[in-house]
Amino acid sequence: MKRIISMFTLAACLCLAYGQDNPTKGDLYQGLTRPLTFNRMIAPYALEVTFYKTVHIIFPSAIRYVDLGSIDLLAAKADGLENVLRVKAATKNFRNEGNLSVVTEDGSYYTFNVKYVDEPVKLSVEMADFLSTGAEGRPNNDQEVLFEDLGSESPQHVALVVKTIHKNNRRDIKDISSKRFGVQYILKGIYVSNDLLYFHTELKNSTNIPFQVDYTSFRIVDKKMAKRTAMQERVLEPVRVYNQTTIVGGKASERMVFVFPKFTLPEGKQLVVEVMEKDGGRHQKFTLGNGTLVKAKIINNLKMN
User: What is the mean pLDDT of the chain?
Assistant: First the structure.
């Protein structure tokens, strides 16, 4: 028994001595983990804030996520604006540097180190989009995140696709539109990339009275309805809208690109696309069937085939 106790005592002493000679570094795997090197680091931007003034950061895309690393900071989206963030100090003369992280709708990730100064030099900051390159030829914010509503699709790829469709401005569908009271609503094309469908539309106003858009709806409805039978419809919500328009001026036109998870139409159903005028009656509506939908053009390498 004494021999066993002596063995335990010796082992404890050896462990204590090893611990003193080799202090822990928080590595539970005793050197088998790989250290984070600087080439894995997302370099933060330097941001100055104060208690008496507000700093505004303008992002190239809508803000989806904001995290503050300190109780000394306040941040919120500007009222009515999706891509402008207001930042200021919550306490006067805080000493410790804080941090701020932002994720935008195009999948870009931004990080800031924030310190207090009495008079910030930059009160309004405009961030570059993910297509802009930094000093070393790499995007300033090339760290990309994924969003649940886009599934496995890259947000940056989606942003490039909608910009390509809008820039090319092709009319691949020539027989689907609505025209009344001097306003015309046109379906210019349907495109597919991986698991997403892209609808390119144009709203033309040939009158002198501006057309104020109340809302645009995409609905799957029955082609024919029996009498006294309630309409069965399914409303589709876009996961992205590019160049979302609220008003079309007189003698003007606007184009938008709506993005949806891919779908087809069941037997006996049709897709109804409708744009409603706010405080007016110049509503527009057109319909399309499965035959048009399944002819969506493929987008490969940002080229429409």
Answer: 85
